[in-house]
Amino acid sequence: MKFTAQQIAGILEGEIEGNPDVEVSKLAKIEEGIPGSLTFLANPKYKSYIYTTKASITIVDKAFVAEQAITTTLIKVEDAYKAFSQLLSYYNQIKLNKFGIEQPSFIAETALYGKDIYLGAFSYVGDKVNIGDNVKIFPNVYIGDNVTIGSNTIIFAGTKIYSDCVIGASCVINSGAIIGADGFGFAPDQNGEYQKVPQTGNVIIEDNVDIGACTTIDRATLGSTIIRRGVKLDNQIQIAHNVEIGKNTVIAAQTGVAGSTKIGENCQIGGQVGFAGHITVGNNVKIQAQSGIGRNVKDNEVLQGSPAFGYGDYNKSYVHFKNLPRIMKDINQLQSKQNGDS
């Protein structure tokens, strides 16, 4: 797909310096620009590259004034970084703007779907599923019985959504995610063998939630596992049964949240954090990567370590952690000296 400088300037409400008819079909870093590519200059440390880049079009701030000859066509805007982000969003919309039902695919007779949907080949839509308008479902997606999916949601290839789950509007679920698999519920019997506890609940995902690739969200034993509005989950996260995550919380990759734990609103959680089950984490909490959370956490705490404790205390303690061999040597020498004196 090709765009001219004139078309791009129209989208961004920018001013052109150079050839308005030059065309681009790809994006590039300014230092790696080639003919036919579009790039941008926002960080002053990359300014020298604008004089050597071979990119056909470069987006710059309106304040930019060339100090040497340049070959790239400029599009001047108020904020180059923001404009480039806007252009990326526009490009994604075009790229994902698919419609229709591809074959082979299966849609149960009792399923309902809105206008302008896309259903990719080899997808399965079960009984009494209700899909909103402008939903994009890419190939090899499984949607179980009684699932509801809100309008403008995108579900990428290979996702599995088990029965009875509810997906809100304007969500993005990336490839390989599994929503509504059974929670890890087993109880030992009198012989010490583990018997499965039926998981009869569901998963509710509210509006504007992003779920990363290969992330799993388990259905509740009873009731619902709930991901509130605006939550952003990275790749390869495990959310166990009956967990609740508050609105606008963000969680980085490889974090695991054990059953029935409640995480508050506007939290920021680093990668590889482990949460014990049946605890409550307050609002506006920040947790550094690789921390272990085994207790309730109050609002606004900042934690690090395993088991985690106050971030400031952790940093002070770490100075001593790494010096423990030397400290122990000094202690042993003092003890030897005392024993010799006595």
UniProtKB/TrEMBL annotation:
<comment type="pathway">
    <text>Bacterial outer membrane biogenesis; LPS lipid A biosynthesis.</text>
</comment>
<keyword id="KW-0012">Acyltransferase</keyword>
<dbReference type="InterPro" id="IPR007691">
    <property type="entry name" value="LpxD"/>
</dbReference>
<keyword id="KW-0441">Lipid A biosynthesis</keyword>
<dbReference type="Pfam" id="PF00132">
    <property type="entry name" value="Hexapep"/>
</dbReference>
<dbReference type="GO" id="GO:0103118">
    <property type="term" value="F:UDP-3-O-[(3R)-3-hydroxyacyl]-glucosamine N-acyltransferase activity"/>
</dbReference>
<dbReference type="Pfam" id="PF04613">
    <property type="entry name" value="LpxD"/>
</dbReference>
<dbReference type="GO" id="GO:0016020">
    <property type="term" value="C:membrane"/>
</dbReference>
<comment type="function">
    <text>Catalyzes the N-acylation of UDP-3-O-acylglucosamine using 3-hydroxyacyl-ACP as the acyl donor. Is involved in the biosynthesis of lipid A, a phosphorylated glycolipid that anchors the lipopolysaccharide to the outer membrane of the cell.</text>
</comment>
<dbReference type="GO" id="GO:0016410">
    <property type="term" value="F:N-acyltransferase activity"/>
</dbReference>
<keyword id="KW-0808">Transferase</keyword>
<dbReference type="InterPro" id="IPR011004">
    <property type="entry name" value="Trimer_LpxA-like_sf"/>
</dbReference>
<dbReference type="InterPro" id="IPR001451">
    <property type="entry name" value="Hexapep"/>
</dbReference>
<dbReference type="InterPro" id="IPR020573">
    <property type="entry name" value="UDP_GlcNAc_AcTrfase_non-rep"/>
</dbReference>
<dbReference type="GO" id="GO:0009245">
    <property type="term" value="P:lipid A biosynthetic process"/>
</dbReference>
<feature type="active site" description="Proton acceptor">
    <location>
        <position position="241"/>
    </location>
</feature>
<feature type="domain" description="UDP-3-O-[3-hydroxymyristoyl] glucosamine N-acyltransferase non-repeat region">
    <location>
        <begin position="21"/>
        <end position="88"/>
    </location>
</feature>
<keyword id="KW-0444">Lipid biosynthesis</keyword>
<keyword id="KW-0443">Lipid metabolism</keyword>
<keyword id="KW-0677">Repeat</keyword>
<protein>
    <recommendedName>
        <fullName>UDP-3-O-acylglucosamine N-acyltransferase</fullName>
        <ecNumber>2.3.1.191</ecNumber>
    </recommendedName>
</protein>
<comment type="subunit">
    <text>Homotrimer.</text>
</comment>
<comment type="similarity">
    <text>Belongs to the transferase hexapeptide repeat family. LpxD subfamily.</text>
</comment>
